[in-house]
Write a structure and sequence with these properties.
single chain, 55% helix
Length: 119
């Protein structure tokens, strides 16, 4: 699975950005890149689709990129977004909880994650 680091770096994405978009922690994603753990099959397919390569290429079984028809688009993060993410990840778990509670309050989102605001 060594190819995910190379492919991520080609897209100029951080491990944090990849982890957030994939719905996993940065540590889980880093463990995949460092071959400490391997993602489940469903995640391998998601990664291959995202990078626009075949699963065989992603897994290092071939050097042929292959033809992939669908590539999901992850949002591009601004420098400000990256700074917020970096600062958030530097917080202790206790301060993260406080930060999330505060952000939810400012955004009008209750603890359940459902917005109080009407569209």
């Amino acid at each position: 699975m060594l190819k995910i680091r190379e492919l991520r770096e080609e897209k100029h994405l951080t491990q944090i950005e990849m982890a957030l978009n994939l719905g996993v922690s940065r540590q889980v994603y880093a463990n995949w890149e460092n071959e400490i753990n391997q993602p489940e099959l469903k995640m391998i397919i998601i990664l291959a689709d995202f990078f626009g390569v075949t699963t065989d290429y992603l897994l290092g079984r071939t050097d042929d990129l292959g033809a992939v028809t669908s590539v999901p688009v992850f949002p591009q993060f601004s420098e400000e977004d990256r700074e917020v993410l970096s600062l958030f990840h530097a917080l202790t778990p206790e301060y993260r909880a406080v930060a999330l509670k505060t952000l939810r309050s400012w955004a009008g989102v209750p603890a359940t994650g459902v917005s109080k605001k009407k569209a």
